[in-house]
Amino acid sequence: MLKIKDNVDLKELEKFGFGQGIYGSEADKTVTICIDKNRKITITSPNHCWWDWEYYYNWNSGTDIIYDLIQAGLVEKG
After folding, report:
1. How confident is the model over 64-76, as pLDDT tens digits?
2. What is the DSSP letter of 3?
3. Hey, which residues does 56 pair with through a beta bridge?
4. What is the distance between the terminal CA atoms of the chain, rounded to a whole angstrom?
5. Which string of DSSP letters, residue by residue, matches 13-74?
């Protein structure tokens, strides 16, 4: 499983398009990436993050955002 490194300020995720808090309907999106309070990354169907999520990202296709996070040095195996 992938996770955000412990030394990364989660606010950094906002630079990559992640949002925090309650979000509205994203019916046209295909996948939601959730970052939970333990910094674990979960990919799920739209708007179905677990209760303990911190940040989310809705996207239409591909895994580019995960690749971008890895390239930026924000992700590790967890």
Report:
1. 888 889 999 999 9
2. E
3. 19, 34
4. 5
5. GGGGT-EES-----TT-SEEEEEETT-BEEEESTT---TTEEEEEEESSSSHHHHHHHHTT-
Tokens of 72: 């930026």
Determine the pLDDT at residue 50.
64
Measured CA to CA, the distance from residue 24 to residue 37 in angstroms comes to 21
Task: Encode pLDDT of 7-57 as tens digits.
Answer: 999 999 989 888 875 554 455 566 788 888 899 988 877 666 666 677 777
Instruction: Find, among 49, 12, 14, 51, the residue nearest to 29 by Cα.
Output: 49
Q: What is the pTM of this model?
A: 0.76
65 in Cβ contact with 59 (< 8 Å)? yes
**Strand-by-strand arrangement of the 53-59 sheet:** 19-20, 53-59, 31-36, 41-44
